[in-house]
Structures are given as structure tokens and as C-alpha cells.
Amino acid sequence: MLRPRHGLSDLIFIVRNKSRSNEFLLSFDGKCCKVLHQYCIGWLARAIAVAISGSVVNSSMTREYSTRQLLPSLILLLLGCMLFTGCSKAGASPDQPIAFSHRIHVENQIDCSYCHDYYEDYDVAGMPPVATCVDCHSLMFEEEPTADLEKIFEFADAGTEIPWVRLYELPKYTHFSHKWHVRAELDCQTCHGDIGTSDRAVQHMVYNMDWCMTCHEEQAASVDCLTCHK
Amino acid sequence: MKRRDFLKNTVVTGTAGVLFDACAPPGSDQIIPILIPEEEFIPGVEEFHPTNCVECPGGCGLLARKMDGRLVKIEGNPAHPISRGASCARGQALPQAMYHPDRVRGPLIREGARGAGQWRNVSWDDAIERLVSELAAVQEDPNNTLAFLTGALRGHRLDMVRRFTSTLEATRHLVHEPFGDGAVLRAHALTTGVEEFFAYDLENANYLVTVGASVLDASRSPVRFGRGVGHLRQGRPGRRGKLVAVQPRLSTTAAAADEWLPARPGSEASLVLALAHVILRDELYDTGFIENRTSGFEEFRARVLADFDPELVAGMAGVSVETLERVATEMAMYGPTIVVAGDAAVTGPRGLGTAVAVDHLNALLGGFGKKGGIFFNQDPPFSEWPSLETVVPAPEALFANLTKESDASSGIRALLISDTNPVHTLPSSAGIDSFLSEIPFVACFTSFVDDTAQMADLILPESTPFERFDDDVPSPSVGIPVATLSAPMFSRPLYDTMSMPDVLLRVAAGLGGTVAEAFPWASYEEALRAAWSGLHAASRGSVAESTERRFWTRALAAGGWWDEDVALNADCLTSDGLYRFELPALESIGLDMTAAGDTSRFTLYVYPSTAFGDGRSAHLPFLQELADPMTSVRWGSVVELNASTASELNISDGDLVEITSDTGSLRVRAQVTQGLRPDVVALSAGQGHGEYGRYARGRGVNPFSLLQATTGSDLSEAPLQATTVRIIKIEETS
Amino acid sequence: MPTWGMSIDLDRCDGCEACVVACRAENNVAPAGPEQAAIGRAVEWMRVERHVEGEFPNVRTRFVPVLCVHCDDAPCVSVCPVSATYENPEGLNAQIHPRCIGTRACAQACPYTVRYFNWGTPKWDAPLEQTINPDVAVRWKGIMEKCTFCVQRIRRAKDEAREDDRPIADGDVQPACAQACPAEAIVFGDLDDPESAVSKLSESPRAERPLEELGTGPRVFYLKEGDWRGSVGPQSSD
């Protein structure tokens, strides 16, 4: 085992030795407070490092920086962190351009895959193009036509897709494949909740790494970082 | 808190703000980019579309990888006989050409003075109308000429230009290709009757000598040669071939070679004949080939034995007698051997002689038509377009025109320019500026405003190869008929652009009469398809289908058509079918050694750069950032000096120096190297654009500004190692 | 489970640098620009080094493509305080970007100097960002990055193999550098499969592991140049 080159790291070396295995990493992450997922640790550390170094630089340059003056920036940082940790909340439900109700469609025997037709064979689940909506709705006469139904045709006639507001987005540095999760016989509800019975699309979960890893551990799926990290 | 303290705090906390930018709460991201694709794509699914590379003469067939509706990567087309799945640095940077920030997005008409760079956007209808009216005016007056200036085009793009120039009255076709190796083509025509680059069976050869041509980095066909030499080296267990490079500078090719012969610029022809001398003297030549397949051998032998003894040539060339003797013997004993000529060695007054000498050396070694040797290209059996009664004007070299005639532009009323950048790659002393200024109307087909387009009156934005139909017949090829085909990989071009042949069709329609009748197609795609129907009719090769429609679909999907079952041949097309040991071209190839006195002057050696070629790829940031394989320079230029020369001149690595020729001067940082003759300084072509997008503009230096353009010459291109320069140090590096 | 490795034949390599640009294009490595490149901050996951010996005219040059060699016992893994880099079960030395806090200790530790720091936010002048490969994360300011053996291609090949219910065949995975190389100098594959091309090349007498004496256990090996001695005749390649 090579010893690291720089001086202050014997302590780090011992810690590293212990933490070389993925298991340790996972349990460390998993047992951490849920809101401080590992993504935040890194940012927090950097934020603190930057704040301290910034203030050190400042104080060395101006010689008039005191802890009192540093305090507002530290408070702002902490506030930012708190906001940050709370920023991806379960239960978020943004307004959509059309008040689409999953419940009505599911009650009409429409399967998830009719609209989201890629999840069995591709990484993405797929959002239906407006043509899919038009296919049915142009042949139907609702008992209670609403203004939202008209909007479908407005978009279709204008040649634009409906600008749905995205509910679930994983960080761009991750790779997720619907195909393999569906083939592992996970129900849509496992991750997306009972969206089929809702009148309004609500974010079921905070998809942080801890949440994903819990299931991967339990199901003996891959826990290798590279499986998901690009 | 005081304002100053607040700002200090903000700086500290502002950085904190940056840290959180990767967090995007739900609701902040619209899915539109995924839902409204340019065409319907499934995120994460890759598509590969065959395409054709036009960055260098190699003509590799490529595959363009499309993800999320956009072009993200280039690969070689594994089935294509030239690239065989590989690609080069320049090809890899091509997606940046498609999405370059400085692409011309629509037709432009000049406002203000020529060269001021002020343009007005116009519609295609207006642009075509302007073109038609200008060309109609040319047609009306018998004193007027239209000139069409292109690079060395191939395939049906060339045929379109030729057809266009033949149907319009009084039209000339001018050609400018700075590293075009025109002398090699002329040599081949003289010796074999075949005015095309030869195909080399590198994979079965054992010894390869390149005279001047940087075959592995930037000349002619680097991917094909890279593969061939790789195979020659380590592709056959138990056999390892040898590569010898004869160049004044240690190029990447010479560096990769087993032996570098740093011949004095201009001595290459004599050196080649000195090698021939040894082979003739020791009777190591292929007697069978000589006796049965050649003419003029006796006279050639007598001449070489008399005048090109290695003892006489060695001192002049700067290569020892021992080396010449040994290399010549190796070439004969350890064949099959192939000798290739190109780049600076085939320019200038001795260029043709050098190329002819190399052909003769190959003939002595009997390489023509043998495994591991030389073969001729074979054309794909295209259908001819409807024949015209008119005469196609023979292509004229622009450089020769400028340097021969006192008033090269006389009579030219309108000039169309496509696929060439003469303002950048002609010696400024050739007078391209005054040539252009004399011409009333200049229109340029281009995707970028480069140095030449900057001087135009009308810019017709060209679609990139990913957005247009096009074909190509690579040359040099591999001896079998190969035709590359590319189609648009997007449902519409990114910007309001049109391919040059399609513009010609619209112009022809606008001109009406016999001109319009000569172009009976609604689109270039239709014209191509008509020509390619001949390949369908041939019912052989890589795409053979029962119906023409199926053939066209399959050919588009495959990226072209080639026939690997065709027998290779090297049948000369001379009148008697024999290889001709042409002699007149070998007159006056000797160097005058008595004038070697002025040691304060050095020969300037100009070569195509690995990253930019002649400069046409300098606009791509990936290539600007690429460290040159031999100089490690990024984003700039250096002039290379030999280490002992540098110490004599008291120049250290990194010093700013001024290089002055009889026709120009420039300042550039020096780099000291062991890989260069002491009497030579080397400057790479490619940089020093006045205009060519933000990454290339004003960057580095352009060696063409120093080159001399000797008047009265009959050369197709500027001599690249015939200019002498002085060097002085301006400032030391800090 | 494969152990990925790579062979680079220095006798075939001619320094053309197709691999360098192919890697950039595949992995979204933004150009640093002239000012940053001038102070040594250009990021090049694959670079071609030029080693020159001798004096004119007896100059001997060697081109050596250098990339992360995915050590079996990597110094960078030892020094990272936050485990942003580790060795995965298939032998890949992985860099997990969101874990990295930019101490740059790994760059110090790496004896091959193949780790690169993002001194600034990678910049793509619009619309050049359209060339970004969606299979590869775009890095940000303050983190390290390096060659991944094109893990996205490994992932794709495994996905396809799993889809077809077959093992990954030799040659299914080609990193961008190997695919581009005209001279076919770069060969990639499973070192644990004795029939794979890369395993067979590892037995060549020309094979040499870079800085092996440091005990890093590199999984990239180089095949030394062959030799030609004209007076004796052509040498065999092996």
C-alpha cells in the first residue's frame, strides 16, 4: 500500500484504509442524517473551505477583517446549506400547463405504457407527444368539457408539444435506466408512488442517493459507483 | 457595516452561491428539449449516419453519431475501404464545425467596402436573383469571362462545376490547392499515362520510402497511410517493415520512421536518382519488369550512371554516401518497396523532376502491379449525365495564372469561389489581392467567413457535409473502385444554408435557356441518384440490389459503394501501354552548389500542419488546443530553428524573432530543435488567418506571407522550400 | 467479471493524435483556451508525449500516448480524503465527480500525471454545447477528472450483452481512442480472458508496464518499438 505523499495525512491514511471498501462508504452514507446526503457533504466542505480561505485571504490583505465581519457570510452560508438541503422536497407539485389527471386516465383502463411507452425497452420512460393525446381526445365527446381539453388542440394546432413541467430529474452526472428496473419487476408505484390515483402529479420521493442505495442493498443489485455515476 | 465590507462579504458568500447551482428544484426544468426534438429521438438511443469527410484529400468514409437529435461524435466507417473504421484528429473535431458559433447562418451581401466585414442578411431568393443577374450580364458581353475558382474537387461536385463552366459562355475553371501535389499528378501522367494518385499496397509492402510527403501526419491520406504503416510494422508476425523519410525537417512522419534522411531542400530529385544509380550499377533492378513493361530504359540508365553517382550527390544533399548506398541496397533487397513523393519536395522548379524520379525508382524496383506495390485507381462505373455539346474548360492553376500573366484578372467580370481559401494560402506576393480587386463581382460558397470570403460581395452559406447530399471518389484510393455517399442526417439544416451544387441548380434554372436544360434535376440529390444508377446497373460490389430504389436506400445506409472483388491493375495508359522512363523532366534538377555562400540566409520550409492541414481546420477549438506532435504548440505558431543555428544566432528557445524574406516579414516565437537541418527554418502552414471565426482569427502567423512567387513559372502551386529568409532576434523570452 | 486493460503498441503509433481529439469529443473535455493552456491547464485525458534523444542528424523520437493506467494499487485512491476515486470490481479506477472536493492530492500522488483539475468552469461557446455527449457527465469547476476507459461504452456494451443474454465479446468495447487510431495501436479488452487480444499482447516480449517499479500495478502496457538493422536484415516483430 503506497503511503500518500503529502505530510498531514497519516490520519487520513488510516481513515482511507478503513473506508476503501464500498460497504463502509455505503453504511457511512446510509447512516448519515437523511437530509445530509453525500452530495451535500462535499459541497458543505467546499463551502466552508472557500469561506475560510476567502476570509483568510481578505484578512491578510486588508488586516482589518475580524470574526465579527466574517460572521454574516458564515450565517449566509449556513442558511444556504439549510435551504439547499431542503430544496428537493418530496410532495412538490408544480403547476402544469394542462391540469392532467392520471386518475381519470387510469380509471379508463389506460395502462402506464400507453403514454410512457419507452420504459420497458429504454433508459427513459418517455413522455407522450401531443399527438398521443389528440389521437383519443379528438374522437371523444366529454360529458363535461373543460378549458384544459381545448388546450390540447391549441398546442397540437400550433405544432408545439405541451410544455410539461418536469417532476423527476436526476442529476446529469448520473445514469438511470428504466428498462432494467422494470425488468427487475419493480412497479411504477415503487418509485413514483400512487400517481395513478392522483388528480395532480405530485413528487413522491426525494431521489437522493441514500434512497436509491437502500433499495439496491436490499435487493442485492449493484452497489458499484460506476453503475450509476457517469 | 460599511459598503466595502459588505462587498467583501459578498465575494466570500457569492462563491457559496456558485456551489449550489447544480441543485435544481423540481419545476425549474422544462422537458421541451426532449419533447420537441428536431426529429423524434429517444433520449439515450444512439444513431449512426454515414458521412464523408472533406477536411483533407484522404476522403475517409465516416459515421456520424447522433444522440438526442444532435451530432455528438465522429467514428470511422468500418466498412469503408479508406478509413476502415479509423479517423484522424481533424475528423474527430468535425462536430465542432457543425455547431461552430461563427457559422454563416444565411446569405450575406456586402455592405461598405470590400474586406470591411460588414454584411447584410438577405433571403436565398434575393441571393440567387443577384447571382443570376450577375452571371447573365457576363453572358451578354463577349468580352466578359466568368471564372469559377475551386479547390481540388472530386466526385460529382467536381462534375457539377465542370458542367456549369461548360454550359456558360466564356467560363474558366481555376484551381487552387496549396498542398495539392500537382507535380506528382503530372509526373504520373508522363510516366504511366495515368493522371491520378497511385494506390499503394502498403499492407503487403516491406519497405516504404517517402520523399518529402508527410504521409502519416498531414499529406494526402493520413488515415489510410497510418493504417498501412501500422500493419507494415506489426501486422504480420515475423515481418517488420521499414519506413524511411527524406525530408529537411523531422516531421511526425520522419519521427515515426526508422530512418530520417535530412536531405537539403531541392536535392531530393538528385538523391532519388543517386539511389537509382546504386540499383542500376549493381543490377539490383527488376529485369522482368524493365524488359517487358517499360520503354526508354537504356537512355535513362546511361544518364543516371553518368550524372548521379552517390559520391557526387552526397555532399550536395547532405546525406552520406554510406547511407545512400545502404538504403538503395535495402530497397532492392528487402522489398516489396514503395517510394512516395509529395509536399514541399514536389513544389518549385525541381518538383516535377523529383516526382518523375520517384516514379522511375518505383519502376526500377518493379513495384507496378505487384503485391506490396503500386496500382492505379479504378473509377466506379457511374452513369454519365446527359452529354452536352459544349467543351469543358481545362482547369487552370490559379497560381500559374497569377505569376505568369501580367493582368491575370483581365476580362473576368464575375468570380465564383468554392472550397478554397487563396487569400490565406497563396503567397501574398502573387498578387491575389489585386487580382480580386479587379473583378467586379465575387461570390463565395462557404460555411464560414474566411480570409477569402471576407473579400467577397456575396456569401452563399454552404451546408456542412452532415446537412447535404454529396459523394466522393477518394484519391489516392486503394486500387478498387470506391465511391463514398453521404446524405443529410437531420431533417433540415441547422441554419438557412444550401449546398453549392443545389445553388448552381437554382442559378441554372434562373438563367434559363440552354443552361437550364443542361441541369434537368430538381435537386443535387436527384442528379447524384441519376449518376449512381450506373453503380446499381453494374450489379456488383458492396451494394447490389434488384431495384434502383433499393440500391439507393442501401447505398445511403452503407455510406457508399465499393467493389472489393475487382482485380487490381497497373496497366499504363501510355500510347504503347509501357511505363515510360521520361527524361526531359529530369533536366536541370541539379542544385547549384556554388551559390551556397550566404550563410546568413536560410531556406524557409513550409509544411501542412497535423491539426490544420493547409489551414482549413484552424477554426475548430479542439484542434487549436491540440498540442502539435512535434512542437507541442497550442493556440499559436512557432518557427523552428536547428539548435546549432540558434546558438550561432544567439537565439534561445522562446525568443521572439523576425523572419524576413524578399517579399515579406513576420514575427513569431522561436523553437530550438534537433530535428531540422541547420540551413533550414520551418514554419507550419495553417495559422495566421485574418478572418476565420473567433478561434482562428489573428492567431499565429501565416508562412505564405513570406513565400516568393517567381514570375514566369509554370508551377501549379507556390514553391514551399525555395524561399530564403533572414532571422533576427527581437526580444528574449521572459 | 472482466478486468479491463489496454495495450498500446509504440511501434504502430505514429503520433497523429487522433486518440487525443477522439477522447475529447467523446468525453466532453472542453478546450481550456489559449491563456489557460499557456499556463499548463489544458485538460487532455489522453495526451501524446514526445521523447527525443540525440542530436542532428541522429535524432530518435518516440511517441507515447499517455492516459490513466487504472492502477491496481493506485496512489490516487490512497490519498483522496473523501473517497472520490476508487477501484471498481472490474479494475477501473473511477472518479466520482460529486464526491470530489478538489484538494488535488490525487494529482500530486499520481506518478503518471494523468489527473486534471477544472480550474474554471468548462466553457462551450454556444452552440458548441450541442456536441456534448449525453452519456458522459459534464464536469464543473473545482473537481478532478481523468480517463475512465470510456466507462460509458463499457456500460453500453454490457447493456447490449445483457439484452441479448450473452457475455461481452472481445472487441465489443472500444474506447474512443482505440476506435479512432488509424494504426490500430490501441487494443482494449479483458485481461482476465486469456483469449482476448489484449491478453495475448500482454505476453509479447515487447510488453512493458509503465513505472512498474513503483508498484502501482498499471493495467495499461506498452509494446516497445521494434528495430531495424539494415545491415543484418529485417528483424522479426516478436
Description:
- The complex is a heterotrimer of chains A (230), B (734) and C (238).
- Chain A has helices spanning 10-19, 22-31, 38-62, 67-85, 102-107, 112-115, 130-137, 147-158, 178-183, 188-192, 209-218, 225-228.
- Chain A has 230 residues and is an all-alpha fold.
- Chain A folds into two domains: 7-85, no CATH class; 102-127 and 164-228, no CATH class.
- In chain A, helix 3 packs antiparallel against helix 4 (67-85).
- The radius of gyration of chain A is 24 Å and the shape is extended.
- The two termini of chain A are 28 Å apart.
- Among the domains of chain B are: 3-32, no CATH class; 42-98, N-terminal domain of TfIIb (Single Sheet); 193-377, Dimethylsulfoxide Reductase, domain 2; 594-731, Beta Barrel (Barwin-like endoglucanases).
- Chain B has 24 helices and 28 strands.
- In chain B, the strands form seven sheets. In chain B, strands 5-4-18-17-16-6-7-15 form an eight-stranded mixed beta sheet.
- In chain B, helix 8 (222-234) links the parallel strand 9 (207-211) and strand 10 (242-246).
- Residues 1-37 of chain B have low confidence and may be disordered.
- With 238 residues, chain C is α+β, with helices and mostly antiparallel strands.
- Chain C has a single domain (4-226), classed as Alpha-Beta Plaits.
- Chain C contains seven helices and twelve strands.
- In chain C, strands 8-1-10-9 form a four-stranded mixed beta sheet. A two-stranded antiparallel ribbon of chain C has the order 2-3. A two-stranded antiparallel sheet of chain C has the order 4-5.
- In chain C, strand 2 and strand 3 form a beta hairpin.
- The longest helix of chain C has 13 residues, at 151-163.
- The chains are: A mainly alpha (230), B alpha/beta (734), C alpha+beta (238).
- Chains in contact: A-B, A-C, B-C.
- Chains B and C meet through strand 3, helix 3, helix 4, helix 8 and helix 9 of B and helix 1, helix 2, strand 2, helix 6 and strand 12 of C.
Structural class of chain B: alpha/beta
Provide the CATH architecture of chain C. 2-Layer Sandwich
Largest sheet: spatial strand order of chain B: 5-4-18-17-16-6-7-15
Low-confidence parts of chain C lasting 5 or more residues at pLDDT below 50? 230-238
Number of strands of chain C: 12
Task: Classify the beta-strand content of chain C into a percent band.
Answer: 15-25%
Number of helices of chain B: 24
